[in-house]
Amino acid sequence: GAGVSQTPSNKVTEKGKYVELRCDPISGHTALYWYRQSLGQGPEFLIYFQGTGAADDSGLPNDRFFAVRPEGSVSTLKIQRTERGDSAVYLCASSPASGSRDEQFFGPGTRLTVL
Amino acid sequence: GENVEQHPSTLSVQEGDSAVIKCTYSDSASNYFPWYKQELGKRPQLIIDIRSNVGEKKDQRIAVTLNKTAKHFSLHITETQPEDSAVYFCAASMEGNLIFGKGTKLSVKP
Q: For testing the chain A interface, which of B27, B48, B50, B98 should be mutated: the one with the most A CBs within 10 Å?
């Protein structure tokens, strides 16, 4: 079956603009995670959903970042008033269930560049 | 919160040699420790994982060991091949979200 997909693959925006990044998890996976990966670093946790609700949003850096998953499948990460420091690859992952014992399958990422 | 340290940051070996990458974690409640391989410009892919009720796990040329007392775990790759060249990340998890190390860039020279 299809893996995790993310769109767009690349996004270039200007400082101060609003962006939306989309994640389509593997069908049937109830847990969905967002990570951010800067160059030369490991992925950094942002938020995770169990179904429609955000089970843990402790990794969101500030209130400019917000994510939704209204129907328990597709998720959108929203960034307001983008800053140059937001430039990174945003990775989405899904797993069959919540909890720490299920493999997380990653998408290809969205490379965000804020000019 | 959890903190994961990974060493070395770069590792160069000759084809056929073994490679070892080590990680330590801070939170004794962590109970799941996956290792991901990431090739340049690609997504991270799970290569092996271990849970806290197991001390060692092996899958062909790859093995992982876990020492819960010392809070460290290691990845061992034997008979390395050029296609093993990539960045490897360890991670620790307690409640779902993964906390990653900074990665090890492995280069296998033919």
A: B98
Summarised one tens digit per residue, pLDDT across range B48-105 is 999 988 899 999 999 999 999 999 999 999 999 999 999 999 999 987 889 999 999 9
Q: Which residues of A touch B44 (CB under 8 A)?
A: 43, 91, 106
Across the interface, whether the CB atoms of B43 and A33 are under 8 A apart is answered no
The secondary structure of chain B in percent helix, strand, coil, rounded to multiples of 5, reads: 5, 55, 40
Q: What residues in chain A have their Cβ under 8 A from chain B's Cβ atoms?
A: 31, 33, 35, 40-45, 48, 50, 55-56, 58-59, 91, 95, 98-101, 103-109
Q: Across the strands, what pairs with B69? A: none
Nearest to B11 by CA among B88, B78, B79, B102: B88
Contacts of B101 in chain A (CB under 8 A): 42
| Tens of pLDDT, residues A5-61 | 999 999 999 999 999 999 999 998 999 999 999 998 999 999 999 989 998 999 999
